[in-house]
Amino acid sequence: MRRLLSGLMLVVLAPLAVAAQETRPIEPEDYYRVDRVSSPALSPDGNHLLYQVETVRQDRNDRINHIWWVDLRNGRNQRISTQGINSTNPNWTPDGRRIYFQTARGDERGTHFLNFTEPGGEAYRIRGLEGMPRFHPDGSWALVTRNVPVESEDEAGDGEEERTLPPTERRPSHWPSGTPALTSPMDRAAAGQTEEDRNRDVYVITHDVYKRDGQLGFIAPPRPGRETVTQFYRVPADGLPEGEERGERLTTGEMNKTFREFSRDGQWILFTAQVPALERPDREPDEDEDPDEERRETGIFVMPATGGESQLVYQSPSGVRGVSLSPDNGELAYVTTEDPITDDPHIRIVSVESGEVIRELADEDWVFSVSTPTWSTDGGHLYWVSAIGGQDQLVRVPSQGGPVERVTDGRHTFAGFDANLDRQRIAYVKSTAERPWEAFVANLDGSGEEQVTQVNTDWLAQVRLSPVEHFTFEGPPHNREWLDQLRERGVEYMLANDAPDGERFEIDGWLVYPLDYEEGRQYPMVVSIHGGPHSRYAETWFPEFQMLAAQGMFVYYPNPRGSSGYGMNFQYSTMEAWGIDDMKDILRGVDEIVARGIVDPDRMGVTGGSYGGFMTSWITAHDHRFRSALTARGIVNWLSFYGVSDASGLVEREFGGMPWPFRSADEGSYDLVMKLSPIVWADRVQTPTLIVHSINDYRTPLEGGEQWFRALRKHDVPVKMVLFPDSSHGLSRTGEPWLLVRRLHEYMDWFRYYLVEEGPIVVQDDDSQ
Prior knowledge:
Layout: E1 3-4, H1 7-18, E2 24-25, E3 36-42, E4 48-57, E5 62-71, E6 76-79, E7 87-92, E8 98-105, E9 108-115, E10 134-135, E11 141-149, H2 195-199, E12 228-236, E13 248-249, E14 257-262, E15 268-276, E16 296-304, E17 311-316, E18 321-325, E19 331-336, E20 346-351, E21 357-361, E22 374-375, E23 381-388, E24 391-398, E25 405-406, E26 413-420, E27 425-431, E28 438-443, E29 450-451, H3 457-460, E30 463-464, E31 468-478, H4 480-483, H5 486-489, H6 491-496, E32 503-512, E33 523-529, H7 543-550, E34 554-559, H8 568-571, H9 581-594, E35 599-609, H10 611-622, E36 628-632, H11 638-644, H12 649-655, H13 670-675, E37 689-694, H14 702-714, E38 719-724, H15 731-734, H16 737-756
């Protein structure tokens, strides 16, 4: 059933029109002018809030973070970290006397401290408190996790023979430094100047993981070395005395341990570790399981905070997340999912005494996400932040069972959340589709919300922004048996027809109105498709959409089936059927908007990145309604993607296995990945296309953009390719600021010229063959 929030439009449009003469439209350079707030942390007494502010420095082409605090009693905000030194992830010591955060000062990197009750002075290190120290509730000491060599009776060199590696396992004695020169000669300053040194510039690869997106250089092979294991150490809050290196060791054994939390009373440490799997008669082995390999499961342990023997409380055959002890230490809660593709997460309550599961929570009518649950002070409820469709909300569930209840409400997402249960207060950073990030505080029940920062207030006073409408519509029926006919019936049949019956998903869509919208006019529209596909668009700040709207266009962005935030059935409904019903969802939203008479159907564009880039190319190969397209970091050939991406496992998971045997309709995924590769359908594309790609994108590598460029050129489709140097898959979010803004200009120019000014900017020349 369709629901339109049209009332919002009447409220928002009027004040924007009044302010039109005093303000200006948003532009790509505003990326430099908006600060991002994150990492809220309430003080133990509830009177102060720490938060982090990220500023983009246009003159230096970088970003810098500073730590700020606000006195919640009088609203005074003040920077506490040193100007010009990057500082992140602030937190409080339990007594509130100090704050600690991550920073780099000269050669010293890691955890630094500042005195809060005695302001002034420089940040300092505390000997032994490195990494991420976990402070005991009484504040007198902290637990530090260290990797230490596995203890062995036979030390290296005591009569052991060195194992000779076969050629395929031998590790090179040298690994080249710097970034691989994929498109230009190697930097001569870094290149070897003699024959011997030049040979050291050669990469010899025999290991599986040799590149990872976001890391421009290739990854060196693992070096042989002594095996290590994690151990917990006790370090005084004021640091170790001179001459002492590690502190008091609390744990032994050869399990790699993950610290979870201290009990509220400080008596116990809760941790998890991998342990040998139990024999479970009702368990069915996985298809790809190696019978000779020892199976492992996750064990949940408690141990005295003073050290001593640990107790295995519970052992889970499925994944374990978000473990937490009840205030009376009698029960523990953890989040699990039996099958991460078919089952929604839920909470299990385990008796610490018996080790038995005694209740399950959020397991029937709750399909949304479950993050780490936090017990209320009386143990009566568990709280967590959940992604609910396109919103983030604080929710809670009675610990004895019952329905999940929303604590907060509204059209927003969070960029950080903290709770002080003793003071019954919460703090969060939120943004909306119409406003960037600011910090807020409220009571634990969600009442009394108050904005406590004004980081972007001055900027907001300078610009005019467009209202954003949320609406819903029904997609075609979801029927797994019908989708399974794709291999047999083919793509064209599946796109031309819907399943005869099945579940009707309600699809979320958002519509950004053109700046200074005038009722009665028709405007161009750009359709934007998110990546993933198992991610989502949300009620959050998207400056790119506001910038397009400032050019005089609607911007429509949906969450088609396959998106996260709607339960596993919705999220994985596209398995082995990418581009079929998810494409229909997107286009049905277009039809809904066009039917209102507000969009010119002859002036529409489509864009997307990653999965959205795949879908943009896929749509233009099968639907000719769009006047222009922009595909970013897209995938057009699943077979070549499988060979070069650092996320090649996506093909096996989403398309039914490895792309072999060749041309088999029954085994592997070759038949399906070829049917669902846009490159196979490139001869049908007519839409002028801009291709945007990062040269060092290892997630959806550059070869995808190159293949699409070549295919469209060969078929006389107007096409332009813009390649960004020294950039990875995340260019649009965390890329080099100058290049990120250049990318925004490419988007604005492309759609403005084709949809607003109606002038083509790509002319196919005669040598395209």
